[in-house]
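Moderator note: this is an archived Q&A kept for reference. The question asked for a predicted structure of one protein chain; the sequence and the answer are reproduced below.
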Amino acid sequence: MTFLEEIGLTKGEAAIYTALLELGQTTTGPLVTRSTVSASKTYQILQKLSEKGLVGHVIKSGTKYFQAASPNRIMDYLDEKEKTILEQKEKASQFIRKIESKSSESIAQATIYEGFKGMKTAYEDLLRTLQPEDEIIIWGPSHSDDELARFFYKFNQKREQRNVRARIFLDENYRPITNWEKLSYTQIKFIERTNPSLIVIHGNRTLITLGKEEVTFVLENDTVADSYKQQFENAWNQKTRIYFGIEGAIRALQEAIEEGKKTKKPLLGFGTDVDDYLVHAPEALKMHFQEQLKHKIKWKLLFSEGYHSPNPLAEVRLLPKGFTIPVRTMIYGEKVAIVDFTKPITTIIIDKKEVANAYSRYFDFLWRKGLPVIN
């Protein structure tokens, strides 16, 4: 493990940042070669490094060039992490004091385990209490903590061997790790960001692990467990996600590609007079096209008259300007993504079969009215 990984960067983030320090100002092409990180992941990693203040960019002649922030920025980054950890510890202490101060009818038994061995003891104790067909619910940890991520996966393998069911929220960064979806007795939903901690609830028992601090709290209390269960159920049944910023628009493109890989059916898109992805996220669009060509995924696109699509595998039809709307709409599987590229860029993703079917019927209606583009 490198120093950069030890302070909280993922392996990919460390490789990209190191490569930028060596290359100086550069486009993604040389960066992919030097870092050995795949092109499909490079843009996403650059976005995350930018959020951490470790990478900046400039645009020259329409091309985006990336550059590593000064290595001194690492100290600022560590100071921010230290501040966050102290705040989390204080909140955890306040939470435990609050639980311990409850009346006798709702007293929580709290046990604190320190270190990696202590964490293993807490979860092995939980495993011993689980019976076949029991269910546990889990907020998975951030993927930035590799050691906790590995432990979390092994825990779920043991849980699977006991025929214990689980519903799990996982960080989007786990998605490429396909072994997760091969686990039996397991339902998984991927979300943009999970808690930095691992939270597991079974019965009246709640386990909370702060990975970097190597501290695990075990709370045995109905009120506490029920509160976490309610939060989980509300999130689990949520059908609509809203993102602000370009990252949400890129997420919709990535989800569409993943759906295309699974179903091999054409993806549907319509709206706007220009391709806003070409304006606001050219690198992401380029990677999208690469994945399209690699997996032979087709789009059916509806745009207004005069539009010329850069998409290499798109069947395009043109509509009179009055038929298009100023947002980009994409339909893939049972999801509809609506992207408004005016400031602030807003993306709404609706995960509902009935809504997707209704939008598909509307798309088919417009498709019949469109004029085919002859290449």
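Archived answer notes: The first helix runs from residue 3 to 6.
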